[in-house]
Amino acid sequence: MATATLSRTKAPKTPIPELTHLDLTPSLASTGAMRYCLYARKSSEDDERQALSIDSQIKAMLELAKREGLEIAEVRRESHSAKASGARPVFKQLLTDVRAGMFNGILTWAADRLSRNAGDLGTVVDLMDQGHLIEIRTHGQGFTNNPNEKFLLMILCSQAKLENDNRGINTKRGMKTRAEMGHRPCIPALGYALEKRPEDKKNRVIPDPIRGPFVRQAFEKVAYQHASGRQLHRWMQEVGFTTKLGRTITLSMIYRMLRNPFYTGKFEYPVGSGNWYQGTYEPLVSQRLFEEAGKVLDMAPKKQWGSKEFAFTKMMLCGNCGSGITAEEKHKRMKDGSIRKYVYYRCCHAKNHDCKQPSIREDELLESLLTIIDTIDLDKIGMKKKLQEEVSRYEKFTTGVLGQSASAKMPRVEIRAYAKYLLQNGKIEEKRELLNCLRNKITLEDGKITLAKEAKE
Fold first, then answer.
1. pTM (2 decimals)?
2. Considering just the CA atoms, what is the radius of gyration of the chain in Å?
3. Under a CB-based contact definition with an 8 Å cutoff, are residues 146 and 188 in contact?
4. Which of 28, 1, 159 is nearest to 105 (CA)?
5. Dist CA 105 CA 70 (whole Å)
6. Which segments of the chain have a pLDDT < 50?
7. Residue 164: CB partners within 8 Å, gap ≥ 6?
8. CA 195, chain centre distance (Å)
9. How far apart are alpha carbons 279 and 262 in whole angstroms?
10. Which residues pair with 184 in a beta bridge?
11. What pairs with residue 39 in β-bridges?
């Protein structure tokens, strides 16, 4: 009996190339030439502090690059703290450029120059995992996409974060101890000065021999003469009272001064905590005088701001003193017994309470704004696109909702005419949105509305 057999034809053998080495991790050779960015950073944003820090870092790392033959494509420097994540613009741009392939290596003095927070550290490690960042070189060691080296990099940066956190805790503890000793841990209030004595390790707070008497007089004028804040402001301008930096005192500073219990010899630290401490400095006013001045301030009539809303406030500036423009409503009884309402816009006197600029009535202001709309380039100031969207929305409403067909040949709405319509009949929000691109370019001067030259056509 014949037996069936299956014959298999053997395929000719093809030589298999010998695999001498298999490396799954990116190597320096496989990624081409190394391009390093030298990044130098100092913690302080003050130019006088650590002034030589960045230059010394760059000098040391340039010597290292020359010695080891490293190609430095660019040098970038930054004066910014690394405590917060994503807060350094130069470093943030550096990471973006590394991701884009502009650099594949970073040269820096130490690991803590790159990061002292978990967010930036995570971004750096991710760039190494993705193969964008091949190597980080410091003055003492290098870090590549190697588990042990990345782990060491994370430890060094985490240690820097721990130092920052501990420094913050120690600083707060030291400030609390200083407050318990009777020294407020911040600059003294206006009317006091710092005095350095050889027997003291720290500066002592003493009454300012020049400004202190004027501060005491201010409390007395309020408590005994019932002077208002504006009267004090005018008086201090007449006597030439200035801050320690030579600046004129503002009205808000006067009110803060009159409410500051520091002048009575005690202070709260931190502010709002309810923890009060007795200071070791000489009080400028007595507790009774401080309370009497506070009573007078409390008795002063309070204006109810924001009870009425006007369309064109916060959109203009006074052409004389640069203050903002406010509005007030006035009523006039007519002969027939009816009452007519008028709205006037005027300078709010924030920067100069003696400003004599005349006011303008709202209907006159609106007429001037309509004239201004005819003189400006809507496209140039970014207003045209927004108006076109509104006009298109209106046309869709008329054809889709109201049933007007295209064959009805509805007149097309003109952009500039629609802007005027909004100024006259729109809601307050629509008027402000329309004029928002002209904010602080419209001025009220001599009772007339004018527009800055760069906003015109």
1. 0.49
2. 36
3. no
4. 28
5. 10
6. 1-31, 46-51, 406-411, 457
7. 83, 116
8. 34
9. 8
10. none
11. 76
Domains of the chain: 36-165 (3.40.50.1390), 192-299 (3.90.1750.20), 316-455 (no CATH)
Residue 135 · residue 143 · CB < 8 Å? yes
Neighbours of 349 (CB within 10 A): 17
Give the pairing type, strands 266-268 and 204-207: unpaired
**Which tens digit of pLDDT belongs to each residue from 145-158?**
888 988 998 888 88
Q: Return d(Cα 147, Cα 322) in angstroms, integer.
A: 61
Residues 24 and 44: their CA atoms lie apart, in Å, by: 42
User: For residues 80, 83, 85 and 89, what is the CA-based torsion angle, rounded to 10 degrees?
Assistant: 0
**Residue 38, both tokens:** 């030298």
Cβ atoms of 136 and 103 closer than 8 Å:
no
Helix axes 118-129, 89-100, angle to 10 degrees: 10
The Cβ-side half-sphere exposure at 163, using a 13 Å CA radius, reads 10
Does residue 414 contact residue 422 with C-beta atoms inside 8 Å? no
DSSP 114: T
Buried b (16+ CB within 10 A) or exposed e, 24-44: eebeeeeeeebbbbbbbbbbe
The sign of the CA dihedral 317, 323, 326, 330 is negative
Number of residues that make up the chain: 457
Q: Which residues contact 351 (CB under 8 A, 6 or more apart)?
A: 321, 322, 323
C-alpha pair distances (Å), 288 with each of 93, 285, 380, 393: 58, 8, 61, 66
The structure tokens listed for 352 are 């100069």
Number of other CB atoms surrounding residue 345 within 10 Å: 23
Would you call the peptide bond into 213 cis, given omega within 30 degrees of 0 as the criterion?
A: no
Q: What does the alpha-carbon distance between residue 184 and residue 275 come to, in Å, rounded to a whole number?
A: 12
For 362, the 3-state DSSP assignment is helix
207 prior amide bond cis, ω within 30: no
C-beta separation of 220 from 284 below 8 A: no
pLDDT in tens, 347-396: 888 777 778 888 899 888 888 888 888 777 766 656 666 667 766 766 66
Block residue for tokens 């750096």: 124
Q: Which long-range contacts (CB under 8 A, 24 or more apart) does 83-87 make?
A: 83/116, 83/117, 83/164, 84/117, 85/117, 85/118, 85/119, 85/120, 86/119, 86/120
Contact at 8 Å (CB) between 185 and 178?
yes
Distances (CA, A) of 150 to 84, 144, 145, 157: 21, 7, 7, 11
